[in-house]
Specification:
about 240 residues, alpha/beta, Rossmann fold, six-stranded mixed sheet, four-stranded antiparallel sheet, 10 strands, binds adenosine-5'-triphosphate, ABC_transporter-like_ATP-bd, ABC_transporter-like_CS, transport, nucleotide-binding
Length: about 240
């Protein structure tokens, strides 16, 4: 379970994230939607203990993401918006390293790494340096790293942004499989198609403020009976980049 209680981030006089209160239930797939600059990455970085909140807090499975960041990482798998890997490690070695950081011994880390390389179609690339991977391969490797300790909660920042349709579908299918196993997923995106396919509930963040929350039907219903999620999104975030409903 993820509990936001007045979580906020200010940069000088600029409110990057306005006090955010929200509960994501265990086993739920929650889509955090918003246009560029809305505050999605800032929120996720506070969830991962990378950024210090200006006010409020967020707790995952009861642990404060700032005060107990180490404990939170045991429960959470995190895919950053742009996964960065050590240039001088091969795909297989990166998974081995991440698994050992989670406390598995060498043999178990190797087993988990090999299984995930196969699961993510990276078996043949396992001995290549990750710096040479395509964006799609990097995202898949990043997701494999996030899953290596079988976390109860996945936090994913734009997991399919920039992927081609095949890679995008593969990642979404893997996420659906994780959700079917009961993993709680908090996923940020501005790709509404993915939100419609994956999410039980969504929240729309705009200029740092959570302006709508609910199931897709509830969100559509708020706007008008025939509205698509895209219609609602464009209506709520109208005025950005000249976009209007
Ligand atoms: N260190 C910083 N100092 C000042 N402003 C910042 C800083 N980091 C982020 N911001 C601003 O905070 C706002 C929210 O940024 P954030 O990266 O969270 O947006 P986002 O929703 O993830 O957008 P995108 O989809 O483009 O990644 C943006 O206006 C950004 O310019």
């Amino acid at each position: 379970m993820i509990e936001f209680a007045g979580l906020a981030k200010v940069y000088g006089a600029f409110d990057a994230v306005k006090p955010l209160s929200l509960t994501v239930r265990r086993g739920e797939v929650f889509g955090f939607l918003g246009p560029n600059g809305a505050g999605k990455t800032t929120t996720i970085r506070m969830m991962m203990g990378i950024l210090v909140p200006s006010a409020g807090q967020v707790r995952i499975n009861g642990y404060d993401c700032h005060g107990a960041a180490h404990e939170v990482k045991r429960h959470v798998g995190y895919l950053p918006d742009t996964p960065v890997f050590y240039d001088y490690l091969r795909g297989r070695e990166i998974l081995q390293f991440v698994a050992e950081m989670h406390g598995y011994d060498r043999a178990e880390a190797a087993r988990r790494g090999a299984r995930l390389l196969a699961e993510f179609g990276l078996e043949e690339a396992g001995e290549d340096y990750a710096v040479n991977y395509s964006l799609g391969m990097k995202k898949r490797l990043g997701l494999a790293c996030a899953l290596v300790h079988e976390p109860a909660v996945l936090i994913l920042d734009e997991p399919i942004n920039g992927l081609d349709p095949r890679a995008s579908r593969e990642v979404q299918e893997r996420l659906l499989a994780a959700a079917a196993q009961g993993t709680t997923i908090f996923v940020s995106t501005h790709l509404l198609d993915m939100a419609e396919k994956l999410c039980d509930r969504v929240g729309i963040i705009h200029h740092g403020e959570l302006v709508a929350t609910g199931t897709l039907d509830e969100i559509r219903g708020d706007a008008s009976a025939a509205a698509s999620l895209e219609d609602v999104f464009l209506k709520i975030t109208a005025g950005d980049d000249g976009v209007a409903p």
